[in-house]
Write a structure and sequence with these properties.
globular; 6-phosphogluconate dehydrogenase C-terminal fold; alpha/beta; about 280 residues; 2 domains
Length: about 280
């Protein structure tokens, strides 16, 4: 199995580390517009060699798109054109699926594409952020599996099982609704909190010296790469706006109760929120 990984960052790099170690990948060809990322990936043994996109497609059995979601959308139609008449398979690892589903749905080679979203990651980016076992026991979503050829689905499912992932199937639109609430809004609130504290820090130098574990864990996602997340927010804007509106509504309820010093109301609201424990545990 020769794999072309397009985008050698946290996700692409971590995938390659485990797929090589677990015997799924015999040869790995890396493609990245950042030459420094290519060189680091070579030096770290994440990839065997670097090449152009066209050459990598020609030389590979499996093409994995691990670039920002807008770049995945731009590349996919051309890649599907190039693999026409072959048994090659292409899959993306993007966090949104509505746009890429729309641009690929009528392509003659749509069956060779599998829409995949591993629900795993960290706040770090680039090939140096790649870590082994990142995907173990995490959930992965395959979208619109009925539109992919059976052998293409089977190959990607085999890969995901080697990574010890739990596979869930969804349609693209439903996927984007769910990730807006459980993933994307978390990043937006983290970025917003970081900006709020940094603004206050300009007035009061010592505010960050008081920051404890609660602040650190809440704001951790604000360290995430804007090149990755800005396209996600744009691509999934419809459902993210819906999630933001819901979040603001809940914040306003807290604001009203805090303003009125309604201790019982606050306790009741927090007890309702505590029900999330049953889901997360």
């Amino acid at each position: 199995m020769t794999i072309a990984v397009v985008g050698i960052g946290l996700i692409g790099g971590s995938l390659m580390l485990d797929l090589r170690k677990r015997g799924f990948a015999d040869k790995i060809i890396g493609v990245d517009s950042n030459l420094q990322h290519q060189n680091i990936a070579l030096l770290c043994g994440i990839i065997d060699e670097a090449d152009t996109l066209d050459n990598a497609i020609y030389r590979s059995d499996l093409i994995l798109l691990c670039t920002p979601v807008d770049s995945n959308c731009d590349m996919l139609p051309g890649i599907l054109d190039r693999i026409s008449g072959t048994s090659k398979v292409v899959a993306d690892m993007g966090s949104t699926k509505g746009s890429i589903a729309e641009i690929s749905k009528d392509h003659p080679q749509r069956g060779r594409y599998v829409a995949t979203h591993p629900m795993a990651g960290t706040e770090y980016s680039g090939p140096l952020a790649a870590i082994g076992k990142l995907f173990d026991y995490k959930t992965v979503i395959i979208c619109d599996p009925e539109l992919s050829d059976p052998d293409a689905n089977a190959l990607i499912e085999k890969m995901l099982k080697i990574l010890n992932m739990r596979i869930v199937y969804m349609n693209s639109a439903l996927h984007d609704v769910h990730v807006a609430y459980v993933s994307h809004i978390s990043h937006i609130t983290s970025f917003s909190l970081a900006l709020s504290v940094l603004e206050k820090e300009q007035e009061e130098e010592n505010i960050l010296t008081l920051a404890g574990g609660g602040f650190e864990s809440t704001v951790r996602l604000a360290k995430s790469n804007g090149d990755t997340w800005a396209p996600i927010f744009s691509e999934n804007s419809k459902y993210i706006i819906e999630a933001i509106d819901t979040y603001i509504e809940k914040m306003n309820i807290f604001k009203k109760l805090i303003s009125g010093k309604d201790t019982e109301g606050l306790k009741s609201l927090m007890e309702e929120a505590n029900k999330i424990r049953k889901i997360l545990n």
